[in-house]
Amino acid sequence: MCESNDMVKVAEQVLQLSSRTGIEPFVEPVKVVSAEAGKVDFKFKVTQKLLNIQGSLHGGVLSLLVDTLTGVTAFTLFSHRGVTLNLNAK
């Protein structure tokens, strides 16, 4: 099992690789706080460019973050790439 610091590095590397797919403006403010197998704590500051016209976090951005950060967390368990097959927002 990886040490916590190693897991943080793994999560940071996977997040960085994910951001190369064109979603970088949305995941750039995301930072890994702590990580262990199956659990990663993230933090980020909601900036103006992430808001909808009502001034709250845009639902599309939120869905993108849930999808991406769930994938980063899953990688700490399975150590291989995967894709989201279904993501419903209701």
From TrEMBL:
One of its GO terms (molecular function) is fatty acyl-CoA hydrolase activity. Keywords: Hydrolase. CDD domains: PaaI_thioesterase. This is Thioesterase domain-containing protein. It comes from Holothuria leucospilota (Black long sea cucumber).
